[in-house]
Amino acid sequence: MRILVTGGLGAVGCHLVPALRRRGHQVWVCDLVHHHDPYYLRCDVSEYRQVEQLFSGGGWAGGYFARPRSFDLVYHLAAEFGRWNGEDYYETLWKTNVIGTKNILRMQAKEGYRAVYFSSSEVYGDWDRAMAETVMDEHEIRQLNDYALTKWVNELQVLNSAAMDGTESVRVRLFNTYGPGEYYSPYRSVICLFAYRALHDIPYTVYLGHRRTSTYITDCAETLARIAERFKPGEVYNIGGLDYHDIRTVSDLILRYLGKSDRGLVTYREAEPFTTRDKLVDCSKAVRDLDHRSTVPLPEGIARTIEWMKRVYSRCEVPV
Q: What are the residue boundaries of the structural domains of the chain, listed by start?
């Protein structure tokens, strides 16, 4: 199958691309920066001219191999991530996430490929029970931040495109995916934040009033890759792990693995504003349709993440 992965160099994409290639698919990688992958295509998805060029077919594309005349499937991962990132850089968030998705949908209507669109557990807002896919159909949910809003807008765009243009798509809602490949910034996921800061003795804050369902990256990628062979147009899937835990548990596991104390390093507060308190996922649909599995428990996943960070940042001088 000829597959394009937008955002293919990102934290999820860098695992999804090899997972698809191991299954024998021919996979092109699309992202913002120049890259050495022979099947790499550079594109800012928020710019329609670049998206149009991405799908024009044939010719030199920056890699060693020509683009195919058409793709069979597109995984649209390219997006701005993070609720506070969405506040500080809201214009980039809305342009990339919403206009970018609209551009991919417009091209999908024109070219006829199937697509997988990526949403987030953030769309469930402060739903206080198990987050099953049907919640969003049966209840009016108030999203708590701009990042969550863009992801819900994306889902509505996908549904509208299917109704208006007959496009065939699958939506996935990822739950707190973490692991090697997620490079640190102040806007990244909680495990990435805590691990990097604890590793470099940078103080951080733990919010005690929140619980999460964490998903190790390779478990997520393998499930996503199976969509290519088990594609059901119109479906939406939660993809999450089995580790339902409070935020302090993550911090404690990281500190224990590093042999460090929280004294002088960690500040504890009750709750973070405009942030979902509890994310308890129901993944039964993904288990049934996609053989979704959680094979890496939280302590092991955190250990793997820290060891990866040690290798990546071994020569990095961090100001305190």
A: 2-312
